[in-house]
Input
Amino acid sequence: MSKILVVDDDRQVREFLELFLTSEGHEVTAVDSAEAALALIAAGFEFDVLITDMQMPGLSGAELIGGLRQRGFRQKMYVVSGRVGLQAVPGADDVIAKPFHLERLIAAVGRSN
Output
């Protein structure tokens, strides 16, 4: 079981990921912005895996991951994106295209255990 932090401004995507990953046996905390994720982390929240949307109001997923990497975070971090052709994001362990295949998501989280 991994402790997963999901960051997505789209409520439906966020709730789907939370429900799906929880059903797979993971402990999931979901927030609607990079700023909310940073506030949780600043308050001492710990996670094994971060799954973040790329494009969000305020800080992007890439900025969130970049900032966490600069602070020394070594956890697995994944970007989900609907942007066609996006294959890499600096600091991210992988990019998972939207609409994503659940098998790919499970495989990514599984590699993080």
